[in-house]
Write a structure and sequence with these properties.
There is one protein chain. By secondary structure, this protein is an alpha/beta fold. Helices cover about 40% and strands about 15% of the residues. It has an eight-stranded mixed beta sheet with strand order 1-2-4-3-5-6-7-8, with helices on both faces. The longest helix is centred in the last third of the chain and has 17 residues. The radius of gyration is 19 Å and the shape is globular. The N and C termini lie far apart (about 40 Å).
Protein backbone atom coordinates (compact mmCIF):
# COMPACT_ATOMS: atom_id res chain seq x y z
CA UNK A 1 0.00 0.00 0.00
CA UNK A 2 1.22 3.53 -0.71
CA UNK A 3 2.49 5.54 2.25
CA UNK A 4 1.93 9.27 2.65
CA UNK A 5 4.97 11.46 2.08
CA UNK A 6 7.33 12.10 5.01
CA UNK A 7 5.46 13.79 7.82
CA UNK A 8 6.78 17.17 8.97
CA UNK A 9 6.45 17.14 12.76
CA UNK A 10 5.04 20.22 14.40
CA UNK A 11 7.18 21.70 17.15
CA UNK A 12 5.97 20.87 20.64
CA UNK A 13 7.42 21.73 23.98
CA UNK A 14 9.44 18.99 25.66
CA UNK A 15 7.08 19.06 28.63
CA UNK A 16 4.12 18.02 26.46
CA UNK A 17 6.07 15.15 24.94
CA UNK A 18 7.34 14.05 28.35
CA UNK A 19 3.78 14.01 29.68
CA UNK A 20 2.73 11.74 26.83
CA UNK A 21 5.61 9.29 27.23
CA UNK A 22 4.47 7.25 30.27
CA UNK A 23 1.11 6.35 28.67
CA UNK A 24 2.82 5.34 25.44
CA UNK A 25 5.43 3.21 27.19
CA UNK A 26 2.90 1.39 29.34
CA UNK A 27 0.54 0.52 26.49
CA UNK A 28 0.92 -2.89 24.90
CA UNK A 29 -0.79 -4.53 21.94
CA UNK A 30 -0.68 -4.60 18.13
CA UNK A 31 1.03 -1.76 16.29
CA UNK A 32 -0.32 -0.61 12.93
CA UNK A 33 1.15 1.58 10.22
CA UNK A 34 0.10 5.21 9.75
CA UNK A 35 -2.49 4.10 7.21
CA UNK A 36 -3.68 1.23 9.39
CA UNK A 37 -1.44 -1.29 7.63
CA UNK A 38 -1.89 -4.66 9.31
CA UNK A 39 -5.54 -4.19 10.28
CA UNK A 40 -7.98 -6.21 8.16
CA UNK A 41 -11.22 -4.78 6.78
CA UNK A 42 -14.40 -6.82 6.19
CA UNK A 43 -14.25 -6.32 2.40
CA UNK A 44 -11.60 -5.51 -0.21
CA UNK A 45 -10.19 -2.00 0.18
CA UNK A 46 -9.86 0.18 -2.92
CA UNK A 47 -8.15 3.54 -3.32
CA UNK A 48 -9.42 6.73 -4.94
CA UNK A 49 -6.46 8.87 -6.02
CA UNK A 50 -6.95 12.62 -6.34
CA UNK A 51 -5.30 15.96 -5.68
CA UNK A 52 -6.53 18.22 -2.92
CA UNK A 53 -5.05 21.52 -1.76
CA UNK A 54 -2.07 20.93 -4.02
CA UNK A 55 -1.19 17.51 -2.66
CA UNK A 56 -1.64 14.03 -4.11
CA UNK A 57 -3.87 11.97 -1.81
CA UNK A 58 -5.87 8.80 -1.70
CA UNK A 59 -9.11 7.80 -0.02
CA UNK A 60 -9.56 4.19 0.98
CA UNK A 61 -13.04 2.79 0.53
CA UNK A 62 -15.07 -0.40 0.32
CA UNK A 63 -17.65 -0.85 -2.42
CA UNK A 64 -19.85 -3.87 -1.74
CA UNK A 65 -22.42 -5.04 -4.29
CA UNK A 66 -25.47 -6.97 -3.02
CA UNK A 67 -26.53 -10.38 -4.24
CA UNK A 68 -30.06 -9.07 -4.91
CA UNK A 69 -29.89 -5.33 -5.70
CA UNK A 70 -32.75 -3.00 -4.84
CA UNK A 71 -31.31 -0.29 -7.11
CA UNK A 72 -30.17 1.95 -4.26
CA UNK A 73 -26.77 2.88 -2.84
CA UNK A 74 -26.00 3.58 0.82
CA UNK A 75 -22.93 5.64 1.72
CA UNK A 76 -21.63 5.12 5.25
CA UNK A 77 -19.71 7.99 6.89
CA UNK A 78 -17.74 7.02 10.00
CA UNK A 79 -17.16 9.02 13.17
CA UNK A 80 -14.02 10.53 14.68
CA UNK A 81 -12.88 7.44 16.61
CA UNK A 82 -14.15 5.03 13.98
CA UNK A 83 -13.20 3.77 10.51
CA UNK A 84 -15.06 2.35 7.54
CA UNK A 85 -14.38 -1.09 9.04
CA UNK A 86 -16.46 -0.31 12.13
CA UNK A 87 -19.53 -0.26 9.88
CA UNK A 88 -19.13 -4.02 9.37
CA UNK A 89 -22.53 -4.95 10.81
CA UNK A 90 -24.32 -2.21 8.90
CA UNK A 91 -22.64 -3.24 5.63
CA UNK A 92 -24.03 -6.75 6.06
CA UNK A 93 -27.52 -5.59 7.03
CA UNK A 94 -27.81 -3.07 4.20
CA UNK A 95 -26.37 -5.52 1.70
CA UNK A 96 -28.88 -8.18 2.73
CA UNK A 97 -31.63 -5.59 2.10
CA UNK A 98 -30.34 -5.02 -1.44
CA UNK A 99 -28.28 -1.85 -1.04
CA UNK A 100 -24.97 -1.31 -2.75
CA UNK A 101 -22.79 -0.05 0.10
CA UNK A 102 -19.90 2.38 -0.18
CA UNK A 103 -17.89 2.98 3.00
CA UNK A 104 -14.92 5.37 2.74
CA UNK A 105 -12.21 6.36 5.17
CA UNK A 106 -12.04 10.13 5.16
CA UNK A 107 -8.74 11.92 4.61
CA UNK A 108 -6.88 11.94 7.93
CA UNK A 109 -8.41 8.65 9.06
CA UNK A 110 -7.51 4.98 9.06
CA UNK A 111 -6.33 3.71 5.64
CA UNK A 112 -6.49 7.09 3.87
CA UNK A 113 -3.83 9.79 3.47
CA UNK A 114 -2.72 11.80 6.49
CA UNK A 115 -1.28 15.00 5.06
CA UNK A 116 1.33 17.10 6.82
CA UNK A 117 -0.69 20.23 6.04
CA UNK A 118 -4.41 20.34 5.35
CA UNK A 119 -7.18 22.82 5.93
CA UNK A 120 -9.76 20.48 7.40
CA UNK A 121 -13.33 21.61 6.82
CA UNK A 122 -16.51 19.63 6.48
CA UNK A 123 -16.97 21.29 3.09
CA UNK A 124 -13.64 19.85 1.95
CA UNK A 125 -14.45 16.36 3.23
CA UNK A 126 -17.85 16.54 1.52
CA UNK A 127 -16.19 17.53 -1.77
CA UNK A 128 -13.74 14.65 -1.44
CA UNK A 129 -16.60 12.22 -0.81
CA UNK A 130 -18.64 13.57 -3.71
CA UNK A 131 -15.67 13.22 -6.07
CA UNK A 132 -15.13 9.62 -4.92
CA UNK A 133 -18.78 8.76 -5.55
CA UNK A 134 -18.72 10.36 -8.98
CA UNK A 135 -15.62 8.35 -9.86
CA UNK A 136 -17.45 5.06 -9.20
CA UNK A 137 -20.70 6.08 -10.88
CA UNK A 138 -22.87 6.82 -7.83
CA UNK A 139 -25.26 9.59 -8.86
CA UNK A 140 -27.61 9.47 -5.86
CA UNK A 141 -27.32 7.82 -2.46
CA UNK A 142 -28.82 7.32 0.94
CA UNK A 143 -26.20 8.96 3.16
CA UNK A 144 -25.80 7.47 6.63
CA UNK A 145 -23.52 9.30 9.07
CA UNK A 146 -22.53 8.45 12.63
CA UNK A 147 -21.08 10.89 15.18
CA UNK A 148 -18.66 13.18 13.30
CA UNK A 149 -19.85 11.38 10.18
CA UNK A 150 -23.28 12.78 10.98
CA UNK A 151 -21.86 16.31 10.82
CA UNK A 152 -20.31 15.43 7.47
CA UNK A 153 -23.54 13.84 6.22
CA UNK A 154 -25.45 17.04 7.00
CA UNK A 155 -22.85 19.14 5.20
CA UNK A 156 -22.93 16.75 2.24
CA UNK A 157 -26.73 16.98 1.98
CA UNK A 158 -26.61 20.77 2.19
CA UNK A 159 -24.00 20.95 -0.58
CA UNK A 160 -25.40 18.17 -2.79
CA UNK A 161 -29.14 17.98 -2.18
CA UNK A 162 -29.85 16.53 -5.63
CA UNK A 163 -27.49 13.63 -4.98
CA UNK A 164 -28.77 12.89 -1.46
CA UNK A 165 -31.92 10.76 -1.63
CA UNK A 166 -32.32 10.31 2.11
CA UNK A 167 -30.28 11.02 5.21
CA UNK A 168 -29.82 8.90 8.34
CA UNK A 169 -28.03 10.46 11.29
CA UNK A 170 -26.80 8.18 14.07
CA UNK A 171 -26.01 10.13 17.25
CA UNK A 172 -24.51 12.99 15.23
CA UNK A 173 -22.40 15.54 17.03
CA UNK A 174 -22.37 19.24 16.23
CA UNK A 175 -26.04 19.58 17.20
CA UNK A 176 -24.99 22.17 19.76
CA UNK A 177 -22.28 24.83 19.84
CA UNK A 178 -20.03 23.75 22.71
CA UNK A 179 -17.95 26.93 22.62
CA UNK A 180 -21.07 29.10 22.86
CA UNK A 181 -22.21 27.02 25.84
CA UNK A 182 -18.95 27.67 27.69
CA UNK A 183 -16.69 24.74 26.80
CA UNK A 184 -13.12 26.14 26.57
CA UNK A 185 -11.40 25.74 23.23
CA UNK A 186 -8.14 23.81 22.97
CA UNK A 187 -5.31 24.75 20.63
CA UNK A 188 -4.18 22.31 17.95
CA UNK A 189 -0.95 21.83 19.92
CA UNK A 190 -2.98 20.91 23.01
CA UNK A 191 -5.03 18.42 21.00
CA UNK A 192 -1.82 16.98 19.59
CA UNK A 193 -0.34 16.43 23.06
CA UNK A 194 -3.57 14.78 24.20
CA UNK A 195 -3.63 12.47 21.20
CA UNK A 196 0.00 11.44 21.72
CA UNK A 197 -0.88 10.49 25.29
CA UNK A 198 -3.74 8.16 24.38
CA UNK A 199 -3.67 4.46 25.21
CA UNK A 200 -5.88 1.39 24.94
CA UNK A 201 -6.97 1.79 28.58
CA UNK A 202 -8.00 5.41 28.05
CA UNK A 203 -9.82 4.59 24.83
CA UNK A 204 -11.61 1.62 26.40
CA UNK A 205 -12.68 3.58 29.46
CA UNK A 206 -14.10 6.41 27.34
CA UNK A 207 -15.90 4.09 24.95
CA UNK A 208 -17.42 2.02 27.76
CA UNK A 209 -18.83 5.11 29.44
CA UNK A 210 -19.96 6.97 26.33
CA UNK A 211 -20.46 4.56 23.44
CA UNK A 212 -21.93 1.59 25.30
CA UNK A 213 -23.73 3.19 28.29
CA UNK A 214 -21.42 1.62 30.87
CA UNK A 215 -21.46 -1.91 29.45
CA UNK A 216 -18.65 -3.86 27.82
CA UNK A 217 -18.35 -6.88 25.53
CA UNK A 218 -15.30 -8.47 24.00
CA UNK A 219 -16.55 -7.76 20.47
CA UNK A 220 -15.87 -4.06 21.20
CA UNK A 221 -12.18 -4.70 21.88
CA UNK A 222 -10.95 -4.89 18.25
CA UNK A 223 -12.09 -1.28 17.74
CA UNK A 224 -10.12 -0.20 20.82
CA UNK A 225 -7.02 -1.94 19.49
CA UNK A 226 -7.60 -0.44 16.03
CA UNK A 227 -7.21 3.06 17.48
CA UNK A 228 -4.53 2.24 20.03
CA UNK A 229 -2.54 0.34 17.40
CA UNK A 230 -2.24 3.46 15.27
CA UNK A 231 -0.73 5.25 18.24
CA UNK A 232 1.73 2.41 18.92
CA UNK A 233 2.92 2.32 15.34
CA UNK A 234 5.72 4.11 13.50
CA UNK A 235 3.40 6.88 12.30
CA UNK A 236 1.95 7.88 15.68
CA UNK A 237 3.02 11.55 15.33
CA UNK A 238 1.50 11.71 11.85
CA UNK A 239 -1.74 10.14 13.09
CA UNK A 240 -1.90 12.35 16.18
CA UNK A 241 -1.28 15.56 14.21
CA UNK A 242 -4.10 14.87 11.78
CA UNK A 243 -6.34 13.88 14.65
CA UNK A 244 -5.60 17.19 16.36
CA UNK A 245 -6.51 19.13 13.21
CA UNK A 246 -9.74 17.15 12.91
CA UNK A 247 -10.72 17.83 16.53
CA UNK A 248 -10.23 21.54 15.88
CA UNK A 249 -12.49 21.26 12.82
CA UNK A 250 -15.20 19.49 14.82
CA UNK A 251 -15.11 22.00 17.67
CA UNK A 252 -15.19 25.09 15.46
CA UNK A 253 -17.72 24.01 12.81
CA UNK A 254 -21.02 23.01 14.48
CA UNK A 255 -23.91 22.31 12.12
CA UNK A 256 -26.69 23.32 14.50
CA UNK A 257 -27.16 26.75 12.92
CA UNK A 258 -27.99 25.33 9.49
CA UNK A 259 -30.41 22.54 10.33
CA UNK A 260 -33.38 24.53 9.07
CA UNK A 261 -31.90 24.61 5.57
CA UNK A 262 -31.76 20.82 5.33
CA UNK A 263 -34.63 19.68 3.07
CA UNK A 264 -33.55 16.04 2.61
CA UNK A 265 -35.85 13.46 4.26
CA UNK A 266 -33.97 12.62 7.42
CA UNK A 267 -34.02 9.77 9.94
CA UNK A 268 -32.59 10.52 13.39
CA UNK A 269 -31.40 7.44 15.29
CA UNK A 270 -30.43 8.43 18.82
CA UNK A 271 -29.03 6.44 21.73
CA UNK A 272 -30.38 8.44 24.68
CA UNK A 273 -27.58 7.54 27.11
CA UNK A 274 -25.00 9.28 24.92
CA UNK A 275 -23.26 12.22 26.59
CA UNK A 276 -20.73 13.14 23.88
CA UNK A 277 -19.52 16.74 23.83
CA UNK A 278 -16.06 17.56 22.49
CA UNK A 279 -13.61 18.89 25.16
CA UNK A 280 -16.24 18.87 27.91
CA UNK A 281 -13.67 17.26 30.23
CA UNK A 282 -11.87 20.63 30.44
CA UNK A 283 -15.10 22.56 31.06
CA UNK A 284 -16.35 23.72 34.48
CA UNK A 285 -18.81 21.31 36.15
CA UNK A 286 -21.84 23.51 35.47
CA UNK A 287 -20.98 23.60 31.74
CA UNK A 288 -20.37 19.83 31.60
CA UNK A 289 -23.83 19.33 33.10
CA UNK A 290 -25.60 21.17 30.29
CA UNK A 291 -23.84 19.78 27.20
CA UNK A 292 -24.18 16.37 25.58
CA UNK A 293 -27.83 15.89 26.63
CA UNK A 294 -28.88 13.70 23.71
CA UNK A 295 -32.59 13.25 24.51
CA UNK A 296 -32.92 17.04 24.54
CA UNK A 297 -30.68 17.50 21.49
CA UNK A 298 -32.79 14.93 19.62
CA UNK A 299 -35.99 16.84 20.36
CA UNK A 300 -34.46 20.18 19.39
CA UNK A 301 -33.03 18.74 16.17
CA UNK A 302 -36.33 17.11 15.22
CA UNK A 303 -38.09 20.45 15.69
CA UNK A 304 -35.46 22.25 13.58
CA UNK A 305 -35.44 19.83 10.64
CA UNK A 306 -38.19 20.42 8.07
CA UNK A 307 -38.60 16.76 7.09
CA UNK A 308 -37.44 14.32 9.77
CA UNK A 309 -38.43 11.33 11.88
CA UNK A 310 -36.89 10.33 15.21
CA UNK A 311 -36.16 6.87 16.60
CA UNK A 312 -34.77 6.73 20.13
CA UNK A 313 -32.96 3.88 21.88
CA UNK A 314 -33.48 4.61 25.59
CA UNK A 315 -30.82 2.24 26.91
CA UNK A 316 -28.10 2.79 24.31
CA UNK A 317 -25.15 5.15 24.09
CA UNK A 318 -23.23 6.85 21.32
CA UNK A 319 -22.91 3.77 19.08
CA UNK A 320 -26.29 1.97 18.97
CA UNK A 321 -25.34 0.25 15.69
CA UNK A 322 -22.64 -1.60 17.61
CA UNK A 323 -24.33 -1.95 20.99
CA UNK A 324 -27.48 -3.64 19.67
CA UNK A 325 -27.03 -4.31 15.94
CA UNK A 326 -30.27 -6.23 15.50
CA UNK A 327 -32.51 -3.53 17.01
CA UNK A 328 -30.59 -0.75 15.31
CA UNK A 329 -30.63 -2.21 11.82
CA UNK A 330 -34.32 -3.03 11.99
CA UNK A 331 -35.00 0.58 12.99
CA UNK A 332 -32.71 1.87 10.24
CA UNK A 333 -34.27 -0.18 7.44
CA UNK A 334 -37.83 0.38 8.64
CA UNK A 335 -37.15 4.08 9.10
CA UNK A 336 -35.68 4.53 5.64
CA UNK A 337 -38.66 2.71 4.13
CA UNK A 338 -41.02 5.09 5.96
CA UNK A 339 -39.26 8.28 4.82
CA UNK A 340 -40.52 10.08 1.73
CA UNK A 341 -38.78 8.92 -1.43
CA UNK A 342 -36.98 11.51 -3.57
CA UNK A 343 -38.95 12.92 -6.54
CA UNK A 344 -38.93 10.54 -9.48
CA UNK A 345 -37.89 13.25 -11.92
CA UNK A 346 -35.01 14.55 -9.82
Amino acid sequence: MRLSRQFLLPLLGTAAIAAAAPALAADEGPAYGPELQGFDYPAPVRQYDFTSQGEAMHMAYMDIRPAHPNGRTAVLLHGKNFCAATWEGSIKALGAAGYRVVAPDQIGFCKSSKPARYQYTFQQLARNTHALLESIGVKEAVVIGHSTGGMLAIRYALMYPQQTAQLALVNPIGLEDWKAKGVPSLSVDQWYARELATSADKIRSYEQATYYSGTWRQDYEPWVQMLAGLNRGPGKQQVAWNSALIYDMIFTQPVVYELGALKTPTLLLIGDKDTTAIAKDVAPPDVRARVGNYPELARQTLAALPNAKLVEFPEMGHAPQMQDPQAFHKALLDGLAALPAPPANR
